[in-house]
Amino acid sequence: MIKSDLAPRLDYQYSLEAVRLLMKETLLESDELILAMMQHLTLGAGKNLRAMLLLVSAMDEDGFVSQDAVIAGAAVEILHLATLVHDDIIDEAEIRRGNASLQRKFGKKEAVICGDYLFCVAIAMVAEISNRYPEKLKEFTQAMTKICLGELRQFKHNSDTDLSVLNYLKIIAGKTSALFSLAMYSGAIINGNSDKEARFMGRIGHNMGLAFQILDDCADYQSDVEVTKKSVKHDLAEEVITLPLIFAFLKKPELKQQIRKQQLSVVEINEIIAEVVNVGGVSMAHDVAEKYYLKTKKMIDTLPNQHQRLLMGQILGRIWKVEN
Amino acid sequence: MIKSDLAPRLDYQYSLEAVRLLMKETLLESDELILAMMQHLTLGAGKNLRAMLLLVSAMDEDGFVSQDAVIAGAAVEILHLATLVHDDIIDEAEIRRGNASLQRKFGKKEAVICGDYLFCVAIAMVAEISNRYPEKLKEFTQAMTKICLGELRQFKHNSDTDLSVLNYLKIIAGKTSALFSLAMYSGAIINGNSDKEARFMGRIGHNMGLAFQILDDCADYQSDVEVTKKSVKHDLAEEVITLPLIFAFLKKPELKQQIRKQQLSVVEINEIIAEVVNVGGVSMAHDVAEKYYLKTKKMIDTLPNQHQRLLMGQILGRIWKVEN
Q1: Spatial separation of the C-alpha atoms in residues A28 and A34, rounded to whole Å
Q2: In whole angstroms, what is the distance from residue A258 CA to residue A264 CA?
Q3: Is B33 part of the contact surface with chain A (CB cutoff 8 Å)?
Q4: What pTM does this model have?
Q5: Domain spanning B134-324, CATH class
Q6: Looking at the domain covering A1-132, what would its CATH class be?
Q7: Potential cystine with A101: which of A96, A117, A234, B212 (Cβ 3.0-4.6 Å)?
């Protein structure tokens, strides 16, 4: 751990760099037995969006954050990594962050253990600081439970062409918003905010997570499918039903028949993508994302801390621009 | 949760019953989405050995335990259950506690999520009481990490006919002793013991875990294999190398060739079992178990609390008798 080298208060850029270093060092100081998997995981860098949200939420009026925020930021990213490792087993994903997925490279069984190990590492980091925030640990476990249930809900609705908008929103509230919300809530608690203030931050994270995930699901329909040697990387290939498709079904119910076919070819997937765009599925989904984007922006604008308003606005803007 | 119905201090029998009820109620109050899996898990009752050890370790001089011990006892059993659910995926086990394993009945993917969910439930229970034991949460995460590494070590040494006695002991120290030790350590902390006293309890758990696992591994060689419709239930069929076999290899290295063959038939497995017994593999392994049994007994005999001496002695005696 690099904690001992850290100044007690850090500015945002340095704290984000510190999170990345702490994550990397924590993974690489693992037992030899699991080191090859940890090394593989450090190859692909994520955007660290969840850590960013936590750090900004933990920022004081002078724009600085504490060591605890760095540790919590790394914990939330490692927890996210744990969920990705297990998700890739469930989705049989081949690629993750530009490299072979862990389940592909090391096998499903080792990936199960690796995900469990990462959960333990994340909880160990939380344990390191949790005695300074008594009674708050249960927020962490509640968010983790929501993530599990979101993943299970998604799995159960795979190939379900009758998935409702409400159930879609429940899925993404679990699989994405729960962790965004936890990150922002925890940051505020570390910053010494009241529970009420922290819950408000949590709601910003919740709405931002919904906007992010809907935009991410739209992006899957905004270009031709990526074809790698081994697989087609698209929600349709993985039988995951998302908002653009749900809206397209409303406009053109015949599409359901095409989806129900097993093992869609690349040509068929590209045809369906074009159709989803043509009937307005993507643009309708986009409107929903915009609703959550605007809601989030409005909430951010009410924050009294100018550093938080500025940086959170930038993060939201980046999500909107990149995913848009 | 039944906590509100509990008296502040409970006697041993009632507290063990309370653990079982709390476990069952906690699993059955889960979200509808995951309820079928939880219901299936409540069908097969375990021995609750880890909860027993925790309760006895948490026992005061009058033989009573607190509500916190009941919650921690249920948490440690649910954590154990989480590891079993993921183990069964890794070992492709068909049967667990007399019923179909979760991975067999619901599929590997749902079982991954179910194990994660059970981890969350266990940690949520720990979170409920952890603020009364600041700084102790990390013992929990360290034990969890050891269990993951033990499982990984076992998986990596599957079919390894050159597995050393030392590496075998490392495997079982992780997969069995870590949780026995955690249970006894936590019980003592809940009982208000000093960290030094609690660590002594932890070491009793560690040694008892080793004796228990070696006896359990011997038992696999002390009867003919169980053959179910779907599979042969024996370590040999699952390519798990244990102490009786390691000792048999020392006496008769030619046995290694037989093991290396893929997909042993029932007849072949029974022949190898007979050979392992004949060359003294089981009896030598048994001697090692006895060494740990006697070491544990000696440590228990030094405990000043008579209720703990009596009950822990009974638990150890039961392990020795049942597994012997």
Answers
A1: 9
A2: 9
A3: yes
A4: 0.91
A5: mainly alpha
A6: mainly alpha
A7: A96
